[in-house]
Amino acid sequence: xxxxxxxMPPKRRLSTSESTGGDENDGSGTKRKKLDEPGQMQAVxxxxxxxxxxxxxxxxxxxMKIPGKxxxxxxxxxxxxxxxxxxxxxxxxAGEYPSIEEFKADFYLIVSNAKEYYLKEAxxxxxxLELEHLLNKSLEAVANGxxxxxxxxEKEEDVLTEFLEELLGTIMTASDASEPDRNxxxxxxxxxxxxxxxxxxxxxxxxxxxxxxxxxxxxxEYSSIGQMEEDLQLMFRNATNFNEPGSIIYKxxxxxxxxxxxxxxxxxxxxxxxxxxxxxxxxxxxxxxFSSQLVSLQYEDSETEDEEEEEEVLPMRGPLWxxxxxxxxxTTPGGIEIAEAFLSLPSKRxxxxxxxxxxxxxxxxxxxxxxxxxxxxxxxxxxxxxxxLMFENCKEYNRPDSKLYKDGAKxxxxxxxxxxxxxxxxTEVLLAPTNTVVEExxxxxxxxxxxxxIRKRCKTMYNAILNYTNxxxxxxxxxxxxxxxxxxxxxxxxxxxxxxxxKTINEKIMTSQYKSDDDMLxxxxxxxxxxxxxxxEGSEIYETANTLEKVLMAKARDMGIITEKLKKAKGAGRGxxxxxxxxxxxxxxxxxxxxxxxxSLIFLKLPSKHExxxxxxxxKRPIDMEKxxxxxxxxxxxxxxxxxxxxxLVFDNACKYNEPDSQIYKDAQSLQRLAHQTVRHLTEDDGVxxxxxxxxxxxxxxxxxxxxxxxxxxxxxxxxxxxxxxxDEINGKKIxxxxxxxxxxxxxxxxxxxxxLLQRDVFTVLTRARKLSRLDSQVWEDSVELQRIxxxxxxxxxxxxxxxxxxxxxxxxxKLEADVEAHRASKANEPQQAEEEEDKMNESGAKDWSGLTxxxxxxxxxxxxxVYVTPEDPGMESxxxxxxxxxxxxxxxxxxxxxxxxxxxxxxxxxxTFFEKEVMQGDLHSSIPISKVQGKCIVMAYKDYFxxxxxxxxxxxxxxxxxxxxxxxxNWKKIKPNCFWDYPSYxxxxxxxxPVEPKKIASVFKDRIEKHKExxxxxxxxxxxxxxxxxxxxxxxGGPDPILTYWEQYTIPGxxxxxxxxxxxxxGEGNRNMVAQIDTMWMGQDGMAYFNGPxxxxxxxxxxxxDRKFFKAEAFLSTISDSNPLLSVVGKCVVLxxxxxxxxxxxxxxxxxxxxxxxxxxxxxxxxRPLPPGGLKKYVRGPHVQTDExxxxxxxLVPEKESIYTPPPPQPLATPVMPTGISSPxxxxxxxxxxxxxxxxxxxxxxxxMATIIPGTPGMxxxxxxxxxxxxxxxxxxxxxxxxxILFSMDQRRITMEENPGVRFGEISRTIAEKWKQxxxxxxxxxxxxxxxxxxxxxxxxxxxxxxxxxxxxxxxRNNPPPASSPSLQHPGAPxxxxxxxxxxxxxxxxxxPQMMNGMNGMMPxxxxxxxxxxxxxxxxxxxxxxLLHSEAYIKYIEGLSKDTKTMCNWDKQLQATNQxxxxxxxxxxxxxxxxxxxEHTTSTEALWALRDFMMHESLGVVRLM
Length: 1506
Fold this sequence. Notes:
The chain is 40% helix and 12% strand.
């Protein structure tokens, strides 16, 4: 089936000189001239060159030039006579084709060349066949005088094939509703393996799969959709017969069976309708032909590939068989054969990702067959190369800690040792490419030339560090040649997950395993990083690693490798999506902290399921950076946000599993911040920079600098704050105090929007620390130093106001020093409180004690001993303390000791794991009488515990410690290797007979968090909100009316704080916000607050400006100023002049609320004029008014203008009567401009349109005023343009809902959005043209309405008598509001035009009475809108409240009203139109009373009791 379409320009009529043949009738009465042979050749050549595939690409694209060596190595060696379509075109123009047969022969040569070089499964081979078919059909068409169109390649059965493909596509795209990523067709694509599932073929008599069905489709074996459905149902029956009823495959088969029946019925109807029409297909065909995809699949195994033959035809002798046998028959000391897993390749059904990861899969059976067939030509080197490939595949796919990985490495060593024995040379020399190997490569049609170039470059870089000599003429690479010996360095392999050495790198170079230079550089970096991770910083080998890495990178730069990479990186911000994602990955992977530590190493691979089984119970979506790297290589990501989401998931998983104070948690936070900063940098060129995100980065960097600050001894300054109490006592109540940890979590959540709030909270914590500490304490010194660090970081990242302008810079380092000195002086006069416990030891009467007890069994205790102490609760285990001092007071022997906590004595997250005998160093000290001491134990550092033990201690008394636990703030911090305690000198540490296996267990006290539930909720509440105090209301003395109270700053409910000069959003009609500026604010005599100021209008509110372009967020200063209640303000925005807009942003506004203004709109003249010379009005506020913080862009923006005007279509002829219904090209039964929020409120009617429809309705006011000469304001309903996507959504929604019954609306919308993305550009263009046509017709309708309204108004002005004068109705405006004016919205009364009035008993019927004419009445239009604004409703509600009653009406009287007690109404005046009939009631009055009682019951729950 040929599913292509042709996008061709208008046909070019051949001149008479090009046509010499006679006329022919094409059957439709049209005469066409036959072309001569040159004309035929030219037509065919042009047709083939422009013929497009369904995907949009040209069919002949791959034949436009000879394939290069990189894409098609060895092409010129195989194809002896290469030719391209441009060469054919050149020969035609030169007149080298005397006949069409030679022209045809050259095209056939192109096809035969492609068939000769490419495999049958290759896409190029298939395209060549399609080109051959297209050539034959086009030559046949021009010979018959037919027009060349895409239809010439269609077959008769294409119509049926189209429907068969659609049915197949339904199955291929079916997915599980609960797991959308799980495709249901996977297990049905290929039959099960006969070797693995022999019983399947015993049970199933007619096996069939989707591949067999696809072959039938392509071979045209199906004559109806029903035949294909029978095969599909047979496949599903086979699945249900073989599998258990409750299995997943059984359920999938049942579901797909129902799906096929439903789809088949739908396709039958469509096919019948199409055949009845007899027209060419207008059905949009599927973009993907699934049958071709299925036919290309290969069955996972065969008898000859995977099964070993029992009897060998040829004797297994010779060096090749020796190498094979030593691998195949290798057994472990326990007698286990480990080569079984390498005999055959993994199942494609069970491990499909293996074949996505491994490009060249190979198995032992395949190697065995190649030996038997003589493909190695007795070369042990070639055999070793294939074996190395097999084992490297194993190591690439499996984790290093897996058994299969280790077995592969073991067999690889055995193989290499045997090869060394046979060849008598070093493996390194053996694997080096010789001339013979190179010649073999060059003979191959798929020659490895690109790999050879990569190998040479990698070898050059390898030799650069191999041969490097230092100043002492020594080669320092020796330590990196081989991995450390496990016998002497067993802990190396506990610390380093991915060991790497020079020997391994060289082997990978020699076997061409590196696919790029970056892969080799990554291995070298990994080797040096492992060295730095294992060895102490500053050691000789540590510095050697740094030196060699610099040598390597310098060599890479000299070779141009890194230069190219840097150029790509610099252009990534403006480059392709793939470049941006790769740049993001490289940035995160290569990032190092100040100590040179590569943070990403721990995130490259997921934890071992054997060592951390609970990780996969807690983390539901595990992912690592290597998996992300694979997605990048496979171009899986469709947008940058998808890649960011995966990186965020990696770091979120780490934070979820690990403790907040662990190093992994902190590294994850650092990399997550780096990721967002990098993304912002990459996307800056895509639009306006995100000022709020940039401010978040500044605040995060400032606080991170403070929180991680360390002194010269690498002590974290913030750690000393753990000694402070958690609560403050205020009015006898304990209130949790703010801490640095809480501020950190607020910062990580992005809750701080302003720098002054962050500084306020940090200074509050530091000041409180000094208040609670002594002058000579560590906390005092650290708090002062941290405050200095904060000020330095603030000035650095905020650039002292050049980047982030704020009032916080008023607090200078000098001001800090002055405050500290003042605080020090005030505290010096206070009596110093001694440290409670520590000073108890130094009280009078305390003296040192030797540690020898007086009991019958005298015991000797020393400083540094660990002891058991009797617990308060007899049922608990003994406490563990570390003795720091021995003293005696009042005859009582006492120890001063630090407590070590058992896991049940700590507060931790339920997911935390512990070593079996782990304790934590605590922060509590106690004076303990010797009588409570039960005996000795010992706590060892985790680095010593597993390999050594103290002599003389039983195993039950030996504990391990890795963490320091601060009980006051429940803080966990890993103890640094050099910060552990020293053991007493009398204790001898010896090696263990057998090292202890590090084994972690889950917390035995997971429910502990329940006991602290209230405490946890209190902390979480503090972490989720930043307290922002409501600014005070500040009076302004510059108001014009001395009677009223004016405000410079005022806060309304919300709270929303507004100031003079602020721009605000005022709720208008249809829930549309309008922009106004506050010039003055005052309190009215009615107690309500009002503001006055100018309005701003946006381009959509202006008269049409065909030749004018606008900024994307442009606003125009209006000449109208109005007064409005402050309660009508619903939010804040900001309007900036051009210069300010390009350079800065106030940080508290979203970008969507920022407008640019450079012009003024004159409402009277309806013209746009430049702003006054001074620009927008500037306001000077008082010192106590809240100020904005402003972020300045690194580079000024250059906003662009765009046109938003759409020219209207030609005006239709005028009609004397306005039509009551207008047809539209949109979908039937759907109003494209429908918006319930825009509907007019009660009492509001568009007078112009009503007067046009009913020029003389009795009881209604005629519009007899002449129209204003100025242009009208915009229509009451803002015009809504219909987009192409809206039309597509309307077409698809019903179909999608029928295909997915029961699916929620949001899921349906997402499905439609995915379908829209899959449309081709041509299909989208069709919808765009439809939308454009619809919008133009709607605009024409609106123009016609306005024109008819103007004609009617002009006629009324000419025919009606002059209006009689009437007294003006004075509207005093809102109480206490000077000069109160409300901005008139379109649709309201304007220019003296009266509004239509409603009748007292409802709207009067809108029926024209042409013979009745009422005398017009004229009144002055009140200056208030006829719509009910939210603010007016609220004011009326306030006015209706009374102290004497709880309701606004006589509620009791209304409840007691009955039909019998009410005065009878004239039924002709009742709104009987509400009722379709009176039903069981005799009169309309009774029916309306029944309706009233029903509504009272349903809406209010009020029931009348009889």
